[in-house]
Amino acid sequence: MAKTAQGDGLELRGSTDKLTDNGRGSSYGSEPEVNGGVVPGDNQVDKYGFIGGAQQHSGDSAEEIPTEVLRQREAKWLEMLNSWDKWMAKKHKKVKERCQKGIPPSLRGRAWLYLTGGKVRREQNQGKFQELDNQPGDPKWVDIIERDLHRQFPFHEMFAARGGHGQQDLFRVLKAYTLHRPEEGYCQAQAPIAAVLLMHMPAEDAFWVLVQICEKYLPGYYSTGLEAIQLDGEILYALLRRVSPVAHRHLKKHKLEPILYMTEWFMCAFSRTLPWASVLRVWDMFLCEGVKIIFRVGLVLLKCMLGSQEKLKTCQGLYETMELLRAIQPQYMQEGFLVHEVIGLLVSEKDIEKEHHAQLRRWKETHGDLHCKSPPRMHGAKAIMAAEPPSRQDLRQRPTIIVESPLAPKTDGVRAEDAKESRKTKEEKQKKTILPPQEKPVNPYLPTSDPSPPLKHMTVQGSKESLSSAEHDTYL
To answer: Is the pTM of this model over 0.85?
Structure first.
């Protein structure tokens, strides 16, 4: 298959127009200049960051979780993240169940970093991202990446402004990957993957999670020739025979090759296909359990759209079938329905591996050996951790802001200091209560035109400290 083969408008290796100037542009944080140039009429931003609900009826399809339940889930996830190695070793089933229920939004970025093993890779390669970030990059890949920046979620507030911080970070992550894997370079389908990650974590973390997805979850997907995605297309087609014989017969009858409809689904992990609430739930499960989740989502959609003779009445040919798969009915992509169907579908890692070996034999018979030798695929977080057991040091959390608890036990030195401060404060209060007879009380409601020098100094100092904290507090 040619490099530019595409399933649904996704140009996989390059593009033609260039709308940025070296990936930075001239309007930092300016008005949104987006794909097509038109921002949706409703400029309100939804809870996912999309302007005017642009990400396909995401509001209608999202499940509302009571605040109390969300807080309980956050507490459970914080407990897991604090002892990640123990939970993964002894209670992996519980971790999987909690991923299926949905990771709390406030902890999703950190959870993805731990699930993928990105946290361990980052700790074991301190300074590596900064080193790659400082290099200019291969001009060939830099040019293509720059052209693609404006295409990634143009109606999301993070990526709407040309040359804004979102696009700058996206450029940095994608360029760094081409330097990390120069033999692979850049594939356009990596851009939406990186963009989804940047919505949840800083650039360095996003880079290492992207590395893990490309090397462990979907190895070979973004290599020249796209052999791995073609193989997985055949695996999907074979599994469909078991899941929905009606849909399988229809696709076979019209000779509709899997590569025509599943390329964007799989290579972008459904980030350009599903409403956003469903994207996040699918990714929670995908990063925990591995590629079988992507297969299951594809099988559920094919079964729902083509799984009965009644549904096939409207698509009697190849073209009609392709149009149907490009416009999947909203009820089948709704968060609650889709997640329920995906969890209930009995397709395991063993099923995928068994079919993988069968398709590999057929490939060698018809095409010869694979040109791109990819590392073996790892099925989820547990397999990744088992292959490369991390140390406790690698998993240790490094908060950017440390707040001391007032309930924490104090040392003798701290107690003495507190007692001294208390006495000083008490003496000052006593002085303030005894006013000289000639001094008039100050009216607190009158504006002060010229604050005293100490007050002015303290105000400025306080502002600087606040700014410093905000700059270092990336995400908690």
So the answer is: no
Cβ atoms of 235 and 348 within 8 Å: the answer is no
Cβ burial, residue 380 (10 Å; 0-12/13-18/19+): buried
Give the pLDDT score at 29. Answer: 34
- SS3 for the chain, per residue? CCCCCCCCCCCCCCCCCCCCCCCCCCCCCCCCCCCCCCCCCCCCECCCCEECCCCCCHHHHCCCCCHHHHHHHHHHHHHHHHCHHHHHHHCHHHHHHHHHHCCCHHHHHHHHHHHHCHHHHHHHCCCHHHHHHHCCCCHHHHHHHHHHHHHCCCCECCCCCCCCHHHHHHHHHHHHHHHHCCCCCCCCCHHHHHHHHHCCCCHHHHHHHHHHHHHHHCCCCCCCCCHHHHHHHHHHHHHHHHHCHHHHHHHHHCCCCHHHHHHHHHHCCCCCCCCHHHHHHHHHHHHHHCCHHHHHHHHHHHHHHHCCHHHHCCCCCHHHHHHHHHCCCHHHHCHHHHHHHHHHCCCCHHHHHHHHHHHHHHHHHHHCCCCCCCCCCCCCHHHHHHHCCCCHHHHCCCCCCCCCCCCCCCCHHHHHHHHHHHHHHHHHHHHHHCCCCCCCCCCCCCCCCCCCHHHHHHHHHHHHHHHHHHHHCCCC
At 354-403, the pLDDT tens digits run: 999 998 899 888 877 777 777 788 999 999 998 888 777 777 776 655 55
User: pLDDT digits over 2-28, tens only?
Assistant: 333 433 445 555 433 333 333 333 333
Question: How confident is the model over 404-451, as pLDDT tens digits?
Answer: 555 555 545 545 555 555 555 555 545 444 444 444 444 433 333 444
Report residue 315 as tokens: 């698509």
pLDDT of residue 280: 96
Three-state secondary structure of 134-161: HCCCCHHHHHHHHHHHHHCCCCECCCCC
d(CA 76, CA 441): 54
